[in-house]
Amino acid sequence: MRRILIVSHTYVDPDLRGKLRALAARGVELTVAVPQQWKEPAFGRRLDSAWERQSGLEVFPVPATHPGDALRSRFGAREFSALVRDKRPDLLQVEEEPETALARQVADVAHKLRVPLVLGIRANVDRPAPWITGWRRRRLLQRVQGLLAGSMGAAALVRRIAPDVPTAVIPQLGATVPANPVHEPHEGLVLGFVGRLVPPKGLDTLLEALGQIRHERWSLVVAGDGPERERLEHQATTLRLAARIRWTGALPSEQLERIWSQLDVLVTPSRPTPDWNEPVGHALVEAMAHEVAVVGSETGVIPEIVADAGVLVPPGDATALAEVLHDLANQPRRLALAQAARARVMREYSDDAVAERTLAFWESVLQGSTG
User: Fold this and answer.
1) Is residue 45 a part of any domain in this protein?
2) Dihedral angle, C-alpha 57, 62, 66, 67, nearest 10 °
3) Coil, helix or strand for 315?
4) The CATH number of the domain where 311 resides is what?
5) What stretches of the chain show up as alpha helix (H) in DSSP?
6) Bigger pLDDT: 49 or 131?
7) Rounded CA gap, 6 and 115, in Å?
8) Each residue of 9-24: pLDDT tens digit?
């Protein structure tokens, strides 16, 4: 049995541990180290982690500085070193960006104790940064034995810096695929948008598209919040769409789960900026798992996730988006896409599929480190 230690603030949320449970079910002795306390920036709530062990998965809270600040947060040095020495892992995996303090801390401990290290990353844009940040990133990438990139864009970015490090494209999170997705009965086409209300997420493009099909039967659920909310609500009012839009605010994962049964189509109209290009797209995966048809922009990780199991449109093109939404009012067309989406997630993005791919990559890294 392999002993693996994963480090990430992501798993403070118990609803995001599906991949971990799937790995433990495959005979891995898995410990995940999480900050003892974490403040979710999007919701303003504090999450407190407690120690637990169940079916081969141990969650181990560690005191950490700067809870909620992914860039600066790091574990207590003595507590984390003691955990690694106690667990004696065959492999350490840290799922934080290379410029974070926690990633550097884990890399130092792994190097000192001679434990193979895998780094999980999601960033797919080379943002301008001070020279010290770039130096730290390069130094860390050259010290790892494996890289797990959340997208092909992220993989291409790190291969420019560390071309000789084994790299696999595997998302950080999978999705639980329900055996029998439930859909609530309703009239007309129910559309959904999930994400931060900021310009790159493109909700204004979706509103403009809906203005072009105002005469058709549709409604929109917006699950998210952010600095652009007031402007977007004003845009909806100007376009005479306000009565058909429900703004839920930002929803934690356990509440977002209830949204999927209400939707026919999830729209992800993101558009790239010089320092951001949709790096994750997990809401798309969740929607597809629940047999919701998906429409996304041809940018970032979205085409990788959707492939031929959904519809892609040029980013920022409201007219093209309006035409697609008009087409998806056709129920047989929509249902065929929804079924294809669920099948694709089962093959590629379910918790089990992600766990299988991750486990295979770990084995190749461990074989290489002992070869």
Assistant:
1) yes
2) 40
3) coil
4) 3.40.50.2000
5) 18-24, 77-87, 101-113, 131-141, 152-161, 203-212, 229-238, 253-256, 282-289, 302-306, 318-327, 331-348, 351-370
6) 49
7) 12
8) 999 999 999 999 999 9
The domain containing residue 30 runs over which residues?
3-174+350-370
Domain count for the chain, please give it. 2
Distance CA(117)–CA(49), nearest Å, equals 24
* Cα gap 320→160, rounded to integer Å: 35
- How many residues are given for the chain? 371
Residue 353 three-state SS? helix
Instruction: Indicate the DSSP class of residue 10.
Output: G
Residue 231 near residue 199 (C-beta atoms within 8 A): no
User: Which pLDDT does position 171 carry in this prediction?
Assistant: 96
Tell me the pLDDT tens digit for each residue of 1-11. Answer: 689 999 999 99
CA distance 95 to 101: 12
Asked whether the whole model's pTM tops 0.90, one would answer: yes
Closest CA to 267 of 238, 287, 241, 291: 287
Which 3 state secondary structure label does DSSP give 168? Answer: strand
Q: What's the whole-number average pLDDT of the chain?
A: 95
Q: Are 175 and 145 in contact (CB under 8 A)?
A: no
Q: Tens digits of per-residue pLDDT, 183-222?
A: 998 989 999 999 999 999 999 999 999 999 999 999 999 9
Instruction: Looking at the structure, tell me whether residues 164 and 259 fall in a common domain.
Output: no
Distance CA 116, CA 113 (A): 9
